[in-house]
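ok so I'm stuck.
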Amino acid sequence: MLSNFEILHEQLKEHLKQYHLLSALSTLKTMSQGLTIATVQDDIEKLAGDYRMMLNYMGKGFDDPERHHLFEVFIRRADELADAISRENELAVGTSLYARTWNTLQLMNEPHDISSINISDCSYRQIYEVFWTSKLWTQSEIDITKKWVQSAEVEHLKKCVLISAVMMAVLRHFDINKTRFLLDIYSSEDLTLRARALVGVVLVCIMWPKRLLMYEDIIARISLLADEEKFRNHLQIIQTQLFLSSVTQNLEKQLHNEILPEMMRQAQNLKQNGNLSFKDAEDLSKLLDINPHWEQPGNDDNFMQKMKSLVEMQQQGADIFIGTFKMIKSKYPFFNVAANWFCPFSKKNPEVARFLEKNKLFSKLLNNEQLCNSDKYALAFMFGDMPVFLDCIQNEELNNALEKEFSGINHLSMPLMDDERTLRIYLQDLYRYFKLFRYSENSENPFKKNLLLTENALLSAVLDDENTLGQLANFAFSQKSYHLSRQLYLRMQPSAIILQKIGYSYQIENRYEEAISAYEKARIFHENDEWTLKQLGNCYGFTNNVHAALECYLQLELINQEDTDVLLHLAECFLQLNDPKSAFQKLYKADYLSENNDDVLRGLAWCSLLDGMPEQAMAYYQRLLAKSPLPTDYLNAGHAAWISGDLPSAINRYATYLRQHEKTEDLSMILAKDNTLFYKYNLVKIDFCLMQDLVNYELGIAE
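replied:
not stuck anymore, here's the structure
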C-alpha cells in the first residue's frame, strides 16, 4: 500500500508529464511540508514566483519568443525539486540501506560530507558511503570531486570506488551534476576510471532517458562524443555485454542441469592422472572455467558441442558461473558491504593477502582475465577456508599436477583489447551486484530496464549507422536473443538476409503470419531462394494454408527435384487435400531416391490404405516391421492386416502396439480415431468393439 507521500509523488509525476505546472507546484508544497529542508521550500516559492511572472506577462499580451523554452526550464526545475524532496523523505522515514547508511554517517564523529572529507585518509568503504548518499550536487561538488580524482595522492582503488559510488547515487536519485561529473571523467587518461565513468553514463541514460533530454548541454556533449570512433566502439562493447547479461540466466540453467552432471560422470577419468577428485557438482564448478580435457577422445559428441558452445560464449563475455559464485558470496560477510562489490581486486587487501602468499598457484588462477573483481574476492576467501587442502599443496608433485590441470584456464580466454576487457569486467561486477547483493533494490537496477541502446533517446544516434546496427543485430541473433536482434534489423535497410532473419525471429516465437510477411518480402530480393521457400512452406502449414504451402514446395521441387524432404512435404500437403494418389506419386519418387527411409515407407503404406490398396500397404508395413518399428507402425500395420482380411496378423499387431503403448486408452477408442479409413471398408463401431475383445483375449486380460 502506498504511503501518502508516495501517492503525492505519483500525482506530481503525472502533473509534470501533462505539463500542468501550477498543479505540480501545489503538490510540491504539500510534499515538502514536515521536511527540514528550508532551502527547498524557498526554491519552490521562487519557482512559483517566476512562473506567475511569466503568466502575468503572457496575460498582458507581451510577445516572448523564449516562452516555450522558459516553460520547459520551469518543468525541469520542478523535477529537480521533486528529486531533492524525495531523497529527504527517504532519509527521514525510509528503512532502506541508503537511508540507514546516511543516518549512520550522521552519527559518526568523522567528516561525513563531500565538502569536509579527506579522501586520502578515509577507507574506500567510507568514501563509497559518503558519495553514494550525498545530496544533489552543485558545481562546487563537481569541482571538489574532480580534484580528488585527479590527485596523485589518492590511491587508485579509492578513485574507482568513488566513481562507482557517484553512479549508484544517480541511479537512485537523479542528479544532473553527478551525471556531468561522470561525463567529465570519461576524458581521463586512466583506462579504468574512464571505463567506469562511461558505463555510469550509459546506465544513467538507461535509467533516466527522458530526464536527460531536458538538458541541452548533456545532449550536446553526447553528440560531440558520437563523432569520436573510440566512443562509438566503447558503446558497442557495452551494448554487446548488455546483450549477454540477458542470456545469463539461461546459461546458468544449462550449466547446472546439463554440463556439470556430465562433467561429474567424466571426472573419474581425471582422477587417474593425480588430479583433484570431486564429491559433487558444486565442488566441480569451482574449476572456474572449462577444463581443456573436454577435447579428449571418447567424450560424448553432444556433450562436447555444449562445452564448446559455453566456451565460445564465455570468450564473448557471457557470465556462465554466476550461480556458483552466488553460493560462495552468500557465505562471506565481505559481500554484505556494498562498497566491496565495487572495489578492484587487490592482493594487498589484508583480508586476502595472508593465504595468497602461501601458494603461488592460486595467485595464478586469479590472473584469469574472464574473472570479474568480485569473483576473485570470492575465490580468495574460498581458498582461505581450505587449510587441509593448502597443507597438501605443499607436496611439489601434487602442486605440479594441479598447475598442469589448471594451465588451460587462461588459454581458453581469447586475448582482449584493454578497453574491451576493462568494460566487460566492470559490467560483470555491476551485474553481479544487482543480481547477488542481498540489499540491492530493483528500483535502482538499470538491468531491469530496456537495454537496447538503439532505442535510447540519447544514445540511439551513436549506434544507428548500418555497420554498427548489423554487427549488434548479428551478435544478438547468434546469442538467440531473437527479439532484440529483430528490433535492430528493423532499423536497417532491408535485404534478403535481413528479412530472412526477421522472419526467422518471428517464426521461432510462433508468430507465423508476421514470419510469412517477412519471408515474402525476402523473396522480392531473391525469389527462388530454397531456404526462404522451405520456411514459407512450414509457416503456411502451421497457419493451415495448405494451398500456399503446396505452392512453395512445388517451386522447391522445380529447383531441386531430388530433395526427399520436399517430396515428403508435398505428400503431406496432398494428403491434407484428400489426394492420396498424388501423395503416393511423390512418396514413390522419394523412396527411389532415399532407399528405405522409414518416413517415406510410412507415407507410402498409409497412402495405399487411403487409396484402396490394402495389400500394397501390407507390403510396405512388412518392410517397416522388419526394421526398427515405432508403436504406431504396429497399429497402422494392424489396420492394413484387418482390412486385408488377415485377422490373426491384425490381432497380433494390435496386441504388440498396446504392449508398447504407454496410454491406457481402449483399443476401440483408438480405432475410432481412424473411422474415416475404416468406413471405406465397411468397418464400424461394433467391429471396433469386437476387435478390442479379440485383442484382450490375446493379451490375457479378458474375463
